[in-house]
Design brief:
Blueprint: E1 11-16, H1 25-33, E2 42-46, H2 49-57, E3 62-64
Length: 65
C-alpha cells in the first residue's frame, strides 16, 4: 500500500496583520525573508516546506489566504 502525496496549492498568500516592531531580530528577519515589510502587505509565495516553516514561526503576526 503506497500513500499518494497530498495535492497542494502552488502558492500561498500571506498578509502581515500585526507589526514586527518590538519583536526579536529573528522574527523581524523572518518577516523580511517572507517579503512582509509593511503592515497589510500581502506576499504570494511558493508552497515549499521552508516557506511553510517560516510562516509557522510568525503565524501570530500574519493571516494566510
Amino acid at each position: 500500500f503506497v500513500r499518494e502525496p497530498e495535492i497542494m496549492e502552488e502558492t500561498i498568500k500571506v498578509t502581515l496583520v500585526k507589526s514586527g516592531l518590538g519583536r526579536s531580530k529573528k522574527i523581524r528577519d523572518t518577516l523580511k525573508g517572507l517579503g512582509l515589510t509593511k503592515l497589510r502587505k500581502t506576499a504570494e509565495l511558493k508552497n515549499t516546506p521552508a516557506i511553510r516553516g517560516m510562516i509557522r514561526k510568525v503565524s501570530f503576526l500574519v493571516k494566510i489566504g
